[in-house]
Design brief:
Blueprint lengths: L1 E9 L10 E10 L2 E10 L8 H7 L3 H4 L5 H12 L3 E4 L2 H14 L9 E3 H8 L7 H7 L12 H15 L35 H20 L1
Length: 221
């Protein structure tokens, strides 16, 4: 299944105060592995960036002044996320801003399935800090490049955090006609990005031939 890790940066916190999006970043995952497909853009919000937001992401009014408007990239954005599950940290924030922008240009709200990693983290670590930085520290994920917020950098970090939050383990070989799946134990030192290895049809065929040969040999010995 394909999923989209999504993050936005804005001019401020509240859409009720007219704040808008200045950056959208998306990274596509297929079976939890990042593909080469990404969506990224800076946007001209047609309003000033608040001082607090400027401290967070560092995008000045001058930098954003010559960027495209949301209406100019919306079709490409919607096409990129169409039919895919969205993975967002604090989804209420990002979706409220995205849906506000869509409403302004008379587009329908986003109706994708959404996984909020903030909710997952709160359930898994009640009472603990569950910011993206805190989760990176917990899972020993290097976030040294995150001096300021950036949508694509945050997406990359969140993808790794997400894999840990759902307890994705190293997959075992999954052969045809195999009724039971065994779980391989992970080393405690391996704390993020468990690589998923796809098994080819040729490898499956060789394995089945090996099993038939050895089962027959053991049966008659």
């Amino acid at each position: 299944m394909k999923e989209i890790v999504l993050d936005t940066e804005t001019t401020g916190i509240s859409v009720k105060e007219g704040h808008k999006i200045v950056e959208i970043g998306c990274i596509e995952l297929e079976n939890l592995i990042p593909t080469k497909n990404k969506f990224h853009c800076y946007l001209n919000p047609e309003r000033k960036v608040s001082e607090k937001a400027l401290e967070i992401h560092g995008y000045t009014d001058n930098f954003l002044s010559n960027k495209k408007k949301f209406s100019e990239i919306v079709d490409d954005f919607l096409s990129f996320i169409k039919g895919k599950r969205l993975i967002i940290h604090n989804a209420e924030f990002d979706l409220s801003h995205l849906n506000h922008e869509l409403k302004l240009i008379e587009k329908n709200k986003i109706d994708n399935e959404v996984v909020d990693t903030l909710v997952l983290a709160r359930a898994k670590f009640p009472g603990s800090s569950v910011s993206l930085d805190s989760l990176c520290k917990r899972y020993r994920i290097d976030n040294s490049k995150r001096a300021q917020h950036s949508a694509l950098i945050d997406c990359d970090l969140l993808a790794k955090v997400y894999i840990n939050l759902i307890d994705q383990k190293e997959p075992t070989l999954n052969f045809q006609n195999q009724d039971e799946k065994s779980n391989s134990l992970m080393s405690e030192k391996i704390l993020y990005f468990k690589k998923v290895v796809q098994i080819s049809e040729k490898e499956i065929k060789k394995h089945n031939e090996f099993l038939k040969k050895n089962l027959k040999k053991n049966y008659f010995s």
